[in-house]
Write a structure and sequence with these properties.
- By secondary structure, the protein is mainly alpha-helical.
- It has seven helices and no strands.
- The protein has helices at 10-20, 37-48, 50-60, 67-82, 85-107, 128-135, 138-154.
- Mean pLDDT is 84; it is low at 1-7.
- It is found in: Synaptic cleft.
- Belongs to the UPF0545 family.
Length: 163
Amino acid sequence: SKTLKMSNDPKWNKNVEDLRGKNEANLPSDAWMVRPCEAFKDEYSECKSWKGRFHQTYVYGNHFDCSRWKEDFENCMKFRKYDDLDALDKVLKHEKERRKNRLRAAHNNDVWEYRSEPYKEWNSPLSEANAQQAEQTLFAIKEKEKLYKQNKEQSGGSMCVIS
C-alpha cells in the first residue's frame, strides 16, 4: 500500500489523516498534492474579501474569478465525506494547473542555468574575509548575546571574589 508522509504542520496532518482513513490503494499516486479543504475555503474567502478585491484591482487592474476556489473546496469536501474519487481528480487537476502556472516563469527563465548536481564545494569553509564578515552580522551578534545571557543565568547572575 502507499505511505502518506506526515508534516509538522497540524493543518496538513489533518489532510493526511483524512486520506489515511480512505482506501489508500484506490487513491491516485499524487493525492499528496491535495491541500486540506480548509485551505481552499481560506483562498476563496481571501479572493472575495474587499482587501483581496482591492489588491487584485491595484496589481492586475481587474477582479479575479474566485469560483474555482469554491469549486475546489466543494469537491474536496465531497471527497472527504463521500470518498468521491472524481471530485478528488478535479481538485488534483486544478492543483497541477495552479502549480504549473506558478512555476512557468522559473522554467521559462533564460538567465539562469539549472544545475543537474550541486556545486562541488558547496560545503567548504568560508574564506577569512567572509568569516570575519559573518561574525559582524546581526544574527551572529544576537547569538552571542543569547549565549552570554544563558551563561549569566547558569552562573547565578553575580560573581563574588574574595581576595
